[in-house]
Amino acid sequence: MKEALYELSLIQAQQLIAKGVITKEDYLEGILDRIADVEPHLHLFVDFDPQALRTNCSKLSAVSSNLKPNKPLLGIPIGVKDIIDTQQLKTERGSKAFKGRIAPKAASVVQSIEEHGGLVLGKTVTTEFAWRSPGLTRNPWNLAHTPGGSSSGSAAGVASHCMPAALGTQTLGSIIRPAAYCGVVGFKPSFGTIPRTGVYPLSPSLDHIGVFTRSVEDAAYLTSFLIQNDGIDFPHHSPLPIPSALNLSNWSDAKTNMRSPKIALLKTSKWSRVSGEQQQLIDKTALHLSQSGADVSVLDLPPSFDCIWDMADTIQFAEAAEINDHLAREEPCRISSLTQTLVMKGLNVPMLEYVKAKRKQQELIARFTQCLRGIDAVLTTPSLGEAPKGLEDTGDAIFCTPFTFLGAPAITLPAGYSSNGLPLGIQLANDWGSDARLLSVAVWVENALRKFYTPRNLELKL
Description:
Helix 8 packs across helix 14 (435-449) and helix 10 (308-330) packs across helix 12 (351-371). This protein is an alpha/beta fold. The chain has helices at 10-18, 24-42, 50-59, 108-115, 152-159, 176-182, 216-223, 251-257, 276-291, 308-330, 337-347, 351-371, 401-405, 435-449, and strands at residues 45-47, 77-81, 119-124, 165-170, 185-188, 208-213, 262-266, 295-299, 377-380, 410-417, 423-429.
């Protein structure tokens, strides 16, 4: 093979293992060699046991020449964010308050991975409780810049080819933003699509589980095995049935044969905060997609949507305070000042304001669906621009928050570079429950992007 094993995409590795071209053991060793080279510089993991990984890999059933339907992730190592429970590795939730904690049971999403033959590669760095207190992870494109958060280790791990895929969570922008900063694909499915049982909550009305990969097809493939309703995770919350598993059997055809999508350019009332480089990237992307055959229009949301940011804060603050108040009272020295401030803000939210915000959320979810009639996806920015310099802050989630608040599926794709050589991305989104349609559009867009965007090889400046 011309490329190193760690450079293989998820689907490439899965197909080669299934056909017996490579062994799952050799693939794992390639990943472990890559991690050994870069982990001392990137700080991706909070718990990582190579020998246990080798043992778990050897226990997996032998592969045949054909893909076994019940083991479609056979031998694929996947990073798991540290707020998601695992059994063999610690789940410390990014906090001293849970130092050394071993969960009694793996999260539902981890069980799904393991049932399909996948391996838990390691626990990736998160901000404390998926809030704002940064971990040690650095951006692989420039170690002086943040990788974003809160899914810091997952985004940087996929970008640095230390894992073909990773799990993350998003309460405001913790999948989309770090994926954009690190130059990978980040997919946040519709609210409730992937069960959160066994995942430490930040705000149950906003929390989502999603994935990081290096292609849309990989993201769709992995997600298709994680979709379920376990009957425990808010089974009555969603206004529509949980989306069924994605049909990916003809995705290769979708790249060339899908009809030209109808895409709406959405800038929102916060657009003036976006950097000049990022604004140019979005405008150029809209132009190129139009030239590639897409029907591109402009979408202006009604003024009633301008309350989203305040409503999201109200819900998040109140729910986070209810969850973490006991820690702020009983163990204040073991949690960060940022978490303590979060709890204090939440305790000051009037009950009536919280109830109004919850009602407004449901109203706007329905209205957003009405606004998107006849539109296949909206195009907007995932961030203000390139990853900020410094490791003290993980960036602003302002352009991710609307779709999280609305429970809508969203995906970010790498689409360019800043003048400093850092990745810049675009964000596509749709209304709740339209995950398969959004992913189909994203495949089309990803293919169209290749005509004017040439990905650069990551060169770690260690």
